[in-house]
UniProtKB/TrEMBL annotation:
<feature type="domain" description="PDEase">
    <location>
        <begin position="391"/>
        <end position="721"/>
    </location>
</feature>
<dbReference type="InterPro" id="IPR057304">
    <property type="entry name" value="PDE8-like_REC_N"/>
</dbReference>
<dbReference type="Pfam" id="PF00989">
    <property type="entry name" value="PAS"/>
</dbReference>
<feature type="compositionally biased region" description="Low complexity">
    <location>
        <begin position="274"/>
        <end position="284"/>
    </location>
</feature>
<feature type="binding site">
    <location>
        <position position="508"/>
    </location>
    <ligand>
        <name>AMP</name>
    </ligand>
</feature>
<dbReference type="InterPro" id="IPR035965">
    <property type="entry name" value="PAS-like_dom_sf"/>
</dbReference>
<feature type="binding site">
    <location>
        <position position="508"/>
    </location>
    <ligand>
        <name>Zn(2+) 1</name>
    </ligand>
</feature>
<feature type="binding site">
    <location>
        <position position="679"/>
    </location>
    <ligand>
        <name>AMP</name>
    </ligand>
</feature>
<dbReference type="InterPro" id="IPR023088">
    <property type="entry name" value="PDEase"/>
</dbReference>
<dbReference type="InterPro" id="IPR023174">
    <property type="entry name" value="PDEase_CS"/>
</dbReference>
<keyword id="KW-0732">Signal</keyword>
<protein>
    <recommendedName>
        <fullName>Phosphodiesterase</fullName>
        <ecNumber>3.1.4.-</ecNumber>
    </recommendedName>
</protein>
<dbReference type="Pfam" id="PF23198">
    <property type="entry name" value="PDE8A_N"/>
</dbReference>
<dbReference type="InterPro" id="IPR002073">
    <property type="entry name" value="PDEase_catalytic_dom"/>
</dbReference>
<feature type="binding site">
    <location>
        <position position="507"/>
    </location>
    <ligand>
        <name>Zn(2+) 1</name>
    </ligand>
</feature>
<feature type="active site" description="Proton donor">
    <location>
        <position position="467"/>
    </location>
</feature>
<feature type="binding site">
    <location>
        <position position="508"/>
    </location>
    <ligand>
        <name>Zn(2+) 2</name>
    </ligand>
</feature>
Amino acid sequence: HCPKIPNLMTHNSHVGLEIALLVLVLLVFAKDDAQSNSFCWACERAGFRCNVARTPEAALESFQEKNHDLIIMDHRHSRYFDAEALCRYVYSTCVCVSVVTQRYVENSNMMSCYNELIQLHHGEIRAQIKLRACNAVFTALEQSQEAIEISSEDQIIQYVNPAYECIMGYQRGELLKENTEVPKSEQNKPDLLDNISSCLRRGKEWQGVYYAKKKNGDSVQQNVKMTPVVGQGGWCVRECVCSGVLMCRCCGCVSDIQQSSKHKDRRKGSLDVRSTTSRGSDGSSQRRHSSMARIHSMTIEAPITKVINIINAAQESSPMPVAEALDRVLEILRTTELYSPQLGTKEEDPHTNDLVGGLMTDGLRRLSGNEYILATKQLHHIPGHLTTPLSLNDIPPCIAQTMENEDSWDFDIFNLESATMKRPLTYLGLKIFSRFGVCEFLSCPEATLRSWLQIIEANYHSSNSYHNSTHAADVLHATAYFLCKERVKQSLDPIDEVAALIAATVHDVDHPGRTNSFLCNAGSELAILYNDTAVLESHHAALAFQITTRDDKCNIFKNMERNEYRTLRQAVIDMVLATEMTKHFEHVNKFVNSINKPLAALEENGSILTAPENRILVKRMLIKCADISNPCRPLELCIEWAGRISEEYFAQTDEEKQQGLPVVMPVFDRNTCSIPKSQISFIDYFITDMFDAWDAFADLPNLMQHLDNNFKYWKSLDEKKLHSLRPPPE
């Protein structure tokens, strides 16, 4: 194990609004091995400066000289040195804001070490560097030759620096007595202080002439500019920049000043600096201690914590009904499932509850001994007796004819399925990938692409009524259609387009025709492998890369440059995982708030569309809409897809009953289910809002018209109390 000890000693460095300090890492390893080499490589890649020590003595000497931010000690071989004793010694010698000790299980994988360093840097180290910078600021106040005074909003002195004592003639102890007000000069006009306070409360600057009163009674005139500055963690610091040389006066307060008076004592206690009394040798130690105490009173908060604190503050002065409503808001905010709607009772709408519950949960674990074994180790190979085209030019005319309008939204995938004997993905993939120049981008021969499409399609289950290669081809078609929309093209780079096409092709490979909930309840091998979390989506992404990279004949990534391949791979994985329905509302809400709303407000389009984080949201939304676009297809295609997904759910319910497993979606009983009701629920709950947002972004009036027509069709069947896909013949 390797304990990591960030040291937080103050460096003499410049501190700005953005803290950019070089991270220093000390590796304490008795000898070179794969683990130490991996950490050296990780430090170099992360841009950290790294020192290596072989003995405890060398480690201490190096640490005392350079004050490293992170120490990684080898705790595997106690015969070389006692790592815990070295830790204790470091604890005792460094004056730290706080020390974080963690243990890292031995893992010499370079990327694991790199990821560990990056997580530490973005977590503890960066936060502690900010605290260290705060300490530097307070130290600067102590050493400043300008007189500085900090008072609360009600003019009670909280702090003065040593220069203030010298210039104004007061001793710190006499000013920091209980409720000592700021000394005021009679030469200030009566309404001056009210004017200053009013400006600062409104967040406005105040500038003018101010008279300060010295201990001997003299008044000193200054030209002062006071600027309010909002700090982190609820602090409000008012910084006054003087144009004179005698004094810079600062007024400080915390956010709960405007709450009831019972908080005032606690507030003053958090700012108490009475221990700083002189500038002697003892005084410097005490001043350092007081600076550390003030740093401890400042928090580094997550945005959600800030929101909760603001609401808490607002409750104090709110009427009872408002305070109670805010209590309910706080209960919601303190949960982690902020984007997942809460379902009603079964009596309200069993179709919606069963459908949503089945798609958005990981199932109810049942220790019944019944286990559903999904054979994932035996990958399918391309059947030798099936003839396949050598290139686009060799596609049989009857198949080529069915693909003539493949760039149209109304393209009929079922005609292609029939013409290709349930192998539409290879043929459609060849045409669409050619249209987008995928082979040229990947530096990949068309023969390799053909072999890849064939092996991917061979690993889809043709026995599934819905999740088969026809569905994959349909999603690929929708993805290609969306990629041609103007705003989508403005948002994405060529590598994003290629990633989207690949993700659509592989997004359901080796799907067993059962939901995640079923696999978790059945204790399947995949559910165990992926810890009941995004089981199928994780499997699809992992298997796709296993299939692709195991054989050069179908490795479409073989000629890619390493970094470009890594970027492409991460994009494909992210898009495939985005098809998991438990995160549906999170993805849609982020898209609306980060992209739709700023665009609607006529903000700078370029920066919104091309920001890296927003490109990710666009790609997720694109594949999600392509994956469940069936209700937006022409009516006949919509009806066919509804029948296929219903049949797959019926088969799952049958198997759950046979195996004694929890029935995830009881409403999908083939003897009682109303398909129109299930489609109405799916459109209401998942489709409408998502496609409204996607239409607002990509401009898809034809899709929205189909959606409206299809919804009316299902409604009409339901109003007639029909449970079938179509009305009976007249």
